[in-house]
Structure formats: C-alpha cells, structure tokens
Amino acid sequence: MEIKIPIPDKTVRTQEKLAVFLAFIAGYTDATGLIQWKTYVSFMSGNTTQLGAALFTGKYDIIISSAIVIIFFLAGIYTGTYLLLSKKFRSTKMIFYTVSGIMILYSITDYYEHISNRVSIAVIGFSMGLMNTIVTSVGNQKINTDFVTGTLNSLARTAALFVMSNQSEERQEYKVNIFHLLFLWMGFLSGAAAASFLLICLENWALILPAALLLICTFTVPIQTIKN
C-alpha cells in the first residue's frame, strides 16, 4: 500500500506557481523554436514524431534537427538532475540562473553574430531540459511542465477518477489535482500564444523575456530546495 506523506499547503502553492510559471516559459520558448527554426525545443513528442516520419523520406534536415534537439534536451535533464542531487549545488536557484544565463548569452551572441538553426536548437533545447528538472510534482500530483500530452492524459484520467470515487477525501484530492493540471496546461497554452505576438516586436531578443522572467522569479518566489 502506498503511503502518501502530507505536504504543507504553502509548499504546494509554491510548487503550483512555479509549475504554471515554467509551463508558460516552456510554451513561449517552444513556440519561438517552432516559428523560427521549425523545431520544437521542449516538446519532444513532436520531435520524435518528426524524426520517425522523416527517417525513410530523405528529409535529412529534419532528421538531423530532431536528433540534435532530442539529444541536447536529454543532456539538459541529465545535467539538471545531477545539479539538484549534488551536495554542492542542491538548490533550484542554480538551475534558474543557468537557464537564464544561457538565454541571455544566446540572445546577445545571435544579435551580433547570427547563430545557425542547428546550434540554436541545441543550446535552447539543452536549457529547456535543464528547466524541466526544477518542478516535477505539485503536492502528490506528478507533473511535467512541458509535456502537454502527459498533462492532458493525467487531467482526463483524474477527472474520471473524481467522478467514479465515492470517498469525499479522495474526491477532494482529485479535484485539487484537476485544477493543478488544468492551470499547467493553460500556462503552456498562454506562453505559446504570447510568443506568436511578441516575436514580431522583440525579433532577435525574443528569448530575453523568458530569461528576465526566470531572474525575476528567483527574487519574488521562495525557491529554496524543493524536494519533488
């Protein structure tokens, strides 16, 4: 029997805010990658589909781009997990600063010296992998801030469990988790929608916005070590 450890409401609220915030940034960055480089930089399901569909069609540009972003996204998750579990760097702030720094350095470099699409998706894909390790749960609900398919799957399953449950305590937990997942999906959707508009205004500096938001977040939200 699985034993669920109670999580303080304050911690759950912090996790939820961070999760929605990061989903917004993931959606924004993913839409930026899709519009500018025709490649998802945080939605690996889409890249895997593109890679599989292109393997026997001779579309080598798609094969190479998809493979690059998947590899660097995985490298980002590996690095982020290592940093969070390391005794020396055991803090989510390190990930925030690193991702923000990568985006700022990339934007400045791209402004003065145009960076190729393949290098761009490698760098930003790596940063999205890093960011993906910051929050992996909200309360007892496991989440992934840039996995939209999984979020919608969990949302529908939790809604079904809510309807079928006869115990008030379980129904309350399912209800809370439904809102967590719904807000997460809305955060990603809002970020993607914002990108299509802001790209016209910001052009090469589009990624300065998520970089700035990440820095602001480190000063406005209590992000000490969050154990997921």
Features:
2 strands, globular, mainly alpha, disordered C terminus
Number of alpha- plus pi-helical segments: 8
Distance between the termini: 20 Å
Shape annotation: globular
The SSE order reads HHHHHEEHHH
What share of residues are in beta strands? under 5%
- Class based on secondary structure composition and strand pairing: mainly alpha
The stretches of 5 or more residues where confidence is low (pLDDT under 50) are: 1-6, 224-228
Strand order of the largest sheet: 1-2
> How would a crystallographer describe the biggest sheet?
2 strands, antiparallel
Helix-strand layout with pairing:
Blueprint: H1 9-37, H2 44-54, H3 60-85, H4 92-112, H5 117-131, E1 137-138, E2 141-142, H6 148-164, H7 168-202, H8 208-220
Antiparallel strand pairs: 1-2
Question: What's the short version?
Answer:
By secondary structure, the protein is mostly helical. It has helices at 9-37, 44-54, 60-85, 92-112, 117-131, 148-164, 168-202, 208-220; strands at residues 137-138, 141-142. A hairpin with a 2-residue loop joins β1 (137-138) and β2 (141-142).
